[in-house]
Design a protein that fits this description.
This protein is an all-beta fold and 90 residues long. The protein contains no helices and seven strands. It has one domain. This is DUF7352 domain-containing protein.
C-alpha cells in the first residue's frame, strides 16, 4: 500500500458523501471560507474508490441518531461545526 494525504473540499451542509480512494482515513478538517470545509485524508491512489457518509452539526443543534463517531470540529467565527461519520448516504 502506498498511502498519501489528499485534500478535499466539501460544503457546509447537513450531510454529504465524501468519495476517494480507500482507506479515506480523515486526519484533519478546517474551514474553507464561510460555507465550506477542507478535509485532509489518507488515501492509497492505487486502490478503488470508497465513500464516507458525513454529517455536519452546528454547536447547539441536536446530534442525529445515525452518527457513529466524531471526526473533528471546525472553528469559523462566529460558527463552530462538528463533523461526524454517519450511516446511510446523502
Amino acid at each position: 500500500m502506498s498511502r498519501t494525504i489528499w485534500k478535499f473540499q466539501a460544503p457546509v451542509q447537513d450531510e454529504f458523501d465524501l468519495n476517494g480512494p480507500a482507506p479515506l482515513n480523515i486526519v484533519h478538517v478546517a474551514p474553507d471560507g464561510p460555507t465550506g470545509l477542507l478535509i485532509w485524508a489518507e488515501v492509497d491512489p492505487n486502490r478503488s474508490q470508497t465513500e464516507r457518509h458525513l454529517r455536519v452539526v452546528g454547536t447547539g443543534n441536536p446530534i442525529p441518531n445515525d452518527v457513529t463517531r466524531h471526526i473533528g470540529s471546525v472553528i469559523a467565527p462566529p460558527f463552530v461545526w462538528h463533523l461526524y461519520e454517519a450511516t446511510g448516504g446523502a
